[in-house]
Amino acid sequence: MDMDKLVSLCKRRGFLFQSSEIYGGFNGFWDYGPLGVELKRNVKEAWWHDMVSGHDELSQLPGAPSTFDMAGLDCTIIMHPQVWKCSGHYDLFHDFMVDCKESKKRYRFDQLYVVRLEVTPKFSTNPEISKRAEFGEYWTTLAATPDEQKADVYKRAGGKLSIRSKNVDEAFKISDVKKLPDLLKQGVTLADVIGPDVNGAGSLTEPREFNLMFKTIVGALGGDDDAAFLRPETAQGIFVNFKNVIDSSRVKVPVGIAQIGKSFRNEITPRNFTFRSREFEQMEIEFFCKPESSQAWYTYWRNRRYQWYLDLGLPRERLQLREHHAEELSHYSTGTADIEYAFPFLPAGEFGELEGVAHRGDFDLRSHMEGKLNPETRPLQVELGPDGKPKHRGSGKDLSYYDDQAKERFIPHVIEPSAGADRATLAFLCEAYHEDTAPDENGKPQERVVLKLHPRLAPIKAAVLPLVKKDGMPEAAQKIYRALKKQFNAFYDDGGAVGRRYRRQDEIGTPYCITVDGQTLTDGTVTVRDRDSLKQWRIKADDCPAEITKLVKGE
RNA sequence: GCGGGUGUAGCUCAAUGGUAGAGCGGCUGCCUUCCAAGCAGCAUGCGAGGGUUCGAUUCCCUUCACCCGCUCCA
After folding, report:
1. Gap between the Cα atoms of A57 and A68, Å rounded
2. Do A269 and A349 lie in a common domain?
3. What does the alpha-carbon distance between residue A14 and residue A33 come to, in Å, rounded to a whole number?
4. Beta carbon of A26 within 7 Å of strand B?
5. What's the CA–C1' distance between A92 and B29, in Å?
6. What is the DSSP letter of A406?
7. Are the beta carbons of A399 and A410 closer than 8 angstroms?
8. CA separation (Å) from A475 to A307, A485, A546?
9. Are residues A249 and A166 in the same domain?
10. C-beta neighbour count of A525 within 10 angstroms
């Protein structure tokens, strides 16, 4: 599928616009037009219904370890700054980056690795180096990636120090691989470090801070002390409200708390249409359960969330459930899976994340109780500052849960299915886009653009069309239109040839067209046309609202 | 953030140092009894700012946005 054609259709038909377009646009921000907002609302409403409002807590759902409760939440975008300190975002989102003045590349400070090389200079063909033979040794530092093999490091270093490859084993002694920040703590300065892609030392800049969270000011006279942040995820609002929800709503663990809302991340490189945006919407569940059953719940949510996308029309071939490898996992997580879709803008064989389902253990609740935990520790311990006190103080509130039946108290473990509403919407759009052929009035096949959206997601469920604009057909059609509008979003169109109107509806994904013709006026029936098959059949005009509702719901 | 490319109507594109045109789409009317192209008419644009010039959509600079590659992606 040609992405440009979809982007063009989205613009042309009012699904998506660039933000602030009349001012030239704004990188990483997108607006939903009249049809786009309907589509995205339908995605969110399908999610909310299927996960929250339509949840049956009385039955044990297929694959679920037990019955469970679900509750909703809608919390603020701006929260107490301490939330982000304890969640770990404050530390993580203030990434330090190092630029290389020579190669013009940028590296994450904490992801640059170095090895210290001990060199016997006489093997160098570079006189500058080899003349140091009297010193016996030449020390240098070389930036390297962690997975780089010793032989590769030797090869690169050999090239930089003019040492013949056959001599490298003799010429070098290599020290352990270290992270650059650790090395600098030992007193080595950046001036002695050779960048990964250049020959001379000293091309790396001092580490500079990048703010990946959007900062704002609370209070009209706000200074530095009044800094707050736009949330980079909705999840933390759920954690900090966990006790409120439990205490106020009679739900019991196992329970999922769900939230849909905007989040903000200062992405370094927004790209690929709405796929990576700086302002985006999440659909998140934090599912709280007993530690013993958490693994079973993790499996349950992973499978259920995958199935949800399948049910709404993403095909198995283009949707994968990818379990993270051990080294990708956070230290405290015992499992994370991404639900990924083969977006057409990605290279063949590559998938982009729609949703992450993560086993987060008790990291979040405990961090908000005790203070930010150090994710590197096991068992998890509070991260301490230089003064030996917690680096970021927690709330001090008890967020544990008392199980009345089992008479036991525990800190729930959390399974987090975190979905991107914009990414899901984009995936559904990409999947829906089809070009096929449909016969014209002479029976000749003509090209047709059709969005084969799932009827639940389609912005408009049905269009009502008088076959011609006379003989009372518009009046009959308008009556049906008004009846449909009470049930769902319908569209009335009496302009031009009916074939043209059908095609217009095809292009915006309307699954059904109802056409009023001469027969309607005599026997009260209309035709229903199916978007994908082009098949038509007659039903009674009065039955339209019920019939179309049935079709849309797939009953 | 770096390198390369692009920016003209709603969309796809054309032309030009002398104030822009087509196709499709849109709107109005006519025609039309089931799958976009019949007739008539109408509307809409040089991404933004600055410079050179008598005059800039065209040349130069800056900026913004988009695309490709690199980098990044908790």
Report:
1. 5
2. yes
3. 5
4. yes
5. 64
6. T
7. no
8. 44, 15, 20
9. no
10. 17
Instruction: Give the start-end residues of each E strand in A392-509.
Output: 401-403, 408-410, 413-420, 433-439, 445-451, 462-466, 490-492
CB distance A491 to A462 below 8 Å: yes
SS3 A99: strand
pLDDT at position A307, please? 97
B strand bases under 7 Å from protein CB: 1-3, 7, 10-12, 25-28, 30-38, 47-48, 64-74
DSSP A283-331: EEEEEEE-GGGHHHHHHHHHHHHHHHHHHTT--GGGEEEEEPPGGGS-T
Number of Cα atoms under 13 Å in the Cβ half of residue A294? 24
- Which residue segment(s) compose the domain that A167 sits in? 95-210
**Closest C-alpha among A460, A476, A466, A462 to residue A541:** A476
Residue A234: what are its φ and ψ, rounded to 5°?
Answer: -85, -15
Q: In angstroms, what is the C-alpha Rg of chain A?
A: 30
Paired sense of beta strands A94-99 and A106-108, if any: antiparallel
Q: How many domains does chain A have?
A: 3
Report if residue A432 sits inside a domain: no
Residue numbers of chain A with a pLDDT score lower than 50: 135
- Within 10 angstroms of residue A54's Cβ, the number of other Cβ atoms is 10
Q: Which nucleotide is nearest to A534 (CA to C1')?
A: B35
Q: Convert the pLDDT of each residue in A162-205 to its tens digit.
A: 777 777 777 777 666 677 777 777 767 777 777 766 666 666 77
Euclidean distance between CA atoms A60 and A72, whole angstroms:
20
- Measured between alpha carbons, how far is A244 from A297 in angstroms, rounded to an integer? 23
pLDDT at A135: 47
One domain for residues A147 and A64: no
Tell me how far apart the alpha carbons of residues A551 and A411 are, in angstroms, rounded to a whole number.
45
Cβ of A489 < 7 Å from strand B? no
DSSP for A135-153, please give it: GS-EEEEEEE-TT--HHHH
